[in-house]
Design a protein that fits this description.
With about 550 residues, the chain is mainly beta. The protein is built from 4 helices and 38 strands. A hairpin with an 8-residue loop joins β20 (about 255) and β21. α1 (about 10-15) crosses α3 (about 220-230).
């Protein structure tokens, strides 16, 4: 079963449940009018009735090629009193059946038990429609509920517009709610407009498989939810695109929760077949770092030996032990014996946060990703690297859209060979990896980037930083004393008239420093075989001469 349900933040659900605070007089956005008729919603309308429908309406005057709805091109429609339009025939059903339902392709802004026989007709209780080139607008103006109640009313609209896209039969849909006063008719188990089986809002393919439903349908609070909330940040307005017959979820590319642990929980919404929404993981497990995050997605944060001894990982940072009770400037020695930022002393951060300058930052706090990327769960990535678009579509800024030239490019842009709009002058410019083109010039994607903790920017991506170099070798103590050739041999003046050794220096290699001699660095240049042989002959000759002189005495 392919289904799309919009996940709403806690504030949305709270608003939907707080009906008493929202009140029966809730109003959101004004409806479109000035189309003629008694209230400006069109000259075509239904007479007072309960569970009625219009006759077949030819929609080709507005959409010459018809509407491609779940793979079937529709050229006629039926306006039903009970808050919906259908394409195969009129539908009198007043209690909304849970989608999907067989053999009745339907677009339902508010499928509920509408009754327009109230005494206020025609100033209220009006169901009217208008067709004009590229648009069909159906309005349920201040309609009451069964049985002939109009003490509470609903005021809403369905707007179908020609799709500005590349596919024949593509179209846009908008549900527009101005006034939300009831949810259920008496025959649907309700009393006073509430209880029983509340209204349903969404799309049904009529094949018992494919449908798209706004979350909260057939549940208490759906009226308040539709009036007070939105999927496009405009309370009371719900917009959808139908492409190649499928209802696409709006807001593709938004942050979502995959339900996985650690950084793997961050995802991006994308639309699948028949409008089904899914949360695609934005990141993947990586080597655990000391950054306050669960990088390897094993359910544990900062686990393992992550710092170079004697430092330890605390609060998402490697901290050093206090040296004789002291720390570097700007740091304080804690009771645990470690140096931390003074501004962070006493600051307690959440499990996925770290303290920087006294402020708890989340995984993306202070992060500036390379050009064309965004930070999700401590990872910089391009949304289009995660989102998969259907045939005939391209991903632009995390959204699947028609390629150019089927859609117009903005001022200063031209259509690129891959169907994406690019900066003017960049069609013949080829940039190296890690660079991007603006006005024909290649710019470094890493310029101005501040990668997540423990990462550096290279070739346009944030990657793990290389490990720090090993610490310098420890001091082994003072060098040994110079080499001693024994009594007598180095007691006189050298052969070159200087120093106390045979070569006028302190060693035995003609002025080069011998290892362990203590003079200068611990470097060594080896002798050649000729140098070694000449030294030995010189020493033997000198010894023989001394021996001969002593014999003559």
């Amino acid at each position: 079963m392919s289904t799309m349900r919009f996940r709403l933040p806690v504030a949305v659900l709270a608003a939907a449940l707080a009906w008493s605070a929202f009140g029966a007089n809730a109003r959101a956005v004004p409806l479109l009018n000035s189309f003629g008729g008694p209230n400006g919603y069109g000259t075509d309308h239904l007479p007072p009735n309960d569970d009625g429908s219009s006759s077949s309406i030819d929609i080709t005057s507005a959409f010459p090629g018809g509407l491609n709805f779940f793979g079937t091109v529709q050229t006629q429609a039926f306006v039903n009193t009970n808050g919906n339009i259908t394409f195969n025939r009129g539908v009198p059903t007043y209690t909304p059946n849970a989608f999907p339902v067989a053999s009745q392709p339907m677009i339902a802004p508010y499928w509920a038990d509408v009754d327009i026989r109230g005494a206020s007709y025609p100033s209220s209780n009006e169901v009217a429609w208008v067709l004009r080139p590229g648009q069909m607008i159906v309005t349920w103006h201040n309609v009451g509920y069964y049985s002939s109640h109009d003490d509470k009313t609903m005021d809403f609209q369905l707007i179908i517009s020609n799709g500005m896209s590349c596919g024949a039969g593509d179209f846009e849909v908008e549900f527009r709610f101005n006034h939300c006063g009831w949810e259920t008719g008496d025959a649907s188990g309700g009393s006073g407009g509430f209880g029983g089986t509340p209204a349903q809002s969404g799309f049904d393919a009529g094949n018992s498989v494919d449908y798209v439903e706004i979350m909260g349908s057939r549940m208490a609070g759906i009226a308040a939810h539709l009036c007070a909330e939105s999927n496009v940040s405009m309370p009371g307005i719900w917009q959808f695109s139908v492409r190649s017959g499928a209802v696409l979820c709006p807001g593709a590319g938004e942050v979502c929760d995959t339900g996985m642990p650690g950084v793997c929980s961050a995802g991006i919404t994308q639309c699948g077949a028949a409008g089904a929404i899914s949360c695609a993981a934005a990141g993947s497990p990586s080597t655990e770092l000391c950054d306050g995050l669960d990088n390897d997605c094993d359910g544990s944060i900062d686990n393992g030996d992550l710092c170079t001894a004697p430092e330890v990982c605390q609060g998402g940072a490697c901290v050093a032990p206090c040296f004789e009770g002291g720390c570097a400037p700007g740091e304080t020695c804690t009771t645990d014996g470690f140096c931390v930022e003074t501004a962070c002393v006493g600051v307690t951060c959440g499990p996925t946060e770290r303290c920087v300058a006294g402020t708890c930052l989340d995984a993306c706090g202070g992060v500036v990703c390379p050009h064309g990327q965004q930070c999700l769960g401590g990872t910089c990535l391009a949304a289009c690297d995660v989102i998969t678009c259907g045939d005939g579509f391209v991903c632009v800024d995390g959204e699947c859209t028609c390629p150019c030239p089927g859609r117009s490019c903005a001022s200063g842009e031209i259509c690129g060979s891959d169907g994406r709009c690019i900066s003017s002058g960049c069609d013949l410019t080829i940039c190296d990896a890690g660079f991007y083109c603006i006005d024909g010039a290649c710019l470094d994607a890493c310029d101005g980037a501040t990668c997540p903790l423990g990462q550096i920017c290279e070739t346009g991506d944030c990657i793990p930083a290389p490990p720090p170099p090993p610490p310098p070798p420890t001091d082994a103590g003072p060098p040994p004393p110079p080499y001693d050739a024994g009594p007598g041999i180095d007691s006189g003046t050298g052969s070159d008239g200087g120093g106390t050794g045979l070569d006028g220096g302190s060693g035995h290699d003609g002025g080069r420093v011998v290892p362990g001699s203590g003079a200068g660095c611990a470097c060594h240049v080896g002798q050649t075989n000729d140098e070694s042989g000449r030294g030995m002959l010189f020493g033997l000759g000198l010894a023989a001469m001394l021996f001969w002189r002593r014999r003559r005495r």
